[in-house]
Amino acid sequence: MRYAMAIDTKKCVGCSDCVVACQTENNVPIGYARDWVAEMVAGTYPNVELEIRSERCNHCDNAPCVRCCPTGASHIIDGGIVKVTPEECIGCGACIQSCPYDARYSHPEGYVDKCTFCDHRVEDGLDPACVAVCPTKCMYFGDLDDPSSDVSEAMKNRNYKALAPEAGTDPQIFYLL
Amino acid sequence: MKEELLISGRMNPNIDPFLNIWHWHIPVYLFLGGLAAGILFFAAFYTITGREKEMPTTVKWATFIVPIALIVGLLALFLDLKHQLYFWRLYTTVRLQSPMSWGAWTLMLVTPLSIIWVATYMKEIVPGWKWPWKFLDRAEAFVIKHKVELAWILIVLAVILGIYTGILLSAFNARPLWNTSILGPLFLVSGLSTGAAAIIWMSRSHYERKIMSRIDILLIIIELFLVTHMIMGFLAGSEVKIASAMIFLGGQFTVSFWVFFVILGLVFPLILEILELRGFRIPVGIPAFLILFGGLVFRFIMVEAGQFTRYLY
Fold first, then answer.
1. Residue-range definition of the domain harbouring residue B41
2. Is the pLDDT reported for residue B254 higher than 80?
3. By the number of CB atoms within 10 A of the CB, which of A147, B127, B247, B256 ranks highest?
């Protein structure tokens, strides 16, 4: 089993509903965010291109944050989801330094916090909160090993990319182009 | 022409607009750890080679700095933690892939051992010193008898400690400025050089100062060579590596790096030490202070500048 997400950059309008849904669902402290929207403008007028992406932890297969954690608080659970155990985290910041996506932040209570793919919802067979609320239905979640899952179906006939694959992290969030 | 602009809706404290999760604690610790490793290395080396009599400051007096430096450094590391009550979690597990775990365990070994080392010289530094309990006398006699074995353990730990201060940073792929394997040797050599400088400053024996000055000159030359190689390596690398080199070649850390570290912290003390060996009368404190100052500045620059570099996507 390999959980992954595919996000359609052609459908995303950058409304930030995913950000708010995550903050509400996961009780993210005010002023912090586990996911965010990046807008990229490329080219010179009049040949300008815009790409909008909803970004979060890439739940990497080769996760540098898990490797560098001195206590084992950062770990990978079934399905490849990268998680942090607050009671084992000492707040040293090594994982924050190690993440090429800057997807982790220091929770005001001291431990390091990040996207969990809403594993508490996934356990019950639900989609993560960000996917569930998306008004343009541009996000797909599911098991990559299952060819009939939403995410596998979405990626079937599309070009896609991952972010900073040259970092060697093997990210599992894919952007449909 | 292609222009790119990235606008992010994320504003997490200490992450945005640029990463600054590590502040003064880390460079201060890296400096003190390197200094302690340097002094310990020379103390152990001259004990193993049986030259304690010729090098009294190196083997005895300077080592009193080591436990103090390590404890202050550990305190800085502790203050840096954001979930401090859980710090003991470091010692419930061994994680071979995490440099920080290596460092935590090395410090756990090297700190008490350096205190034991210093304790065997208490009677010489404090006249009339007496251990409060009998068994401590026996323990002292035991350690003195096995001094060379202890020195062997300490020399290995000192090298691990010195290299680890660099590897701590170089293991982070996500920060291109740190992600160069030359950082381990560079921090080790810089730590040895600051250790030698501290010994030169403390020593009253002309002979000992001369030996340590010669070693220090060699170390500074190696350090200059490694710094050059680091920048050359960046310039020959990928886009993010070139951007890292540019931080020192016209970017925001250019002046602090070249003026305070390379010129004031390496080249200037190197010239002063060479002149001193040639017979010019130069107060020994000046080059020693500059080397220590340069070592501290170097670590501040590397920690700070590294957090400015990142992957572009």
1. 25-306
2. yes
3. B247
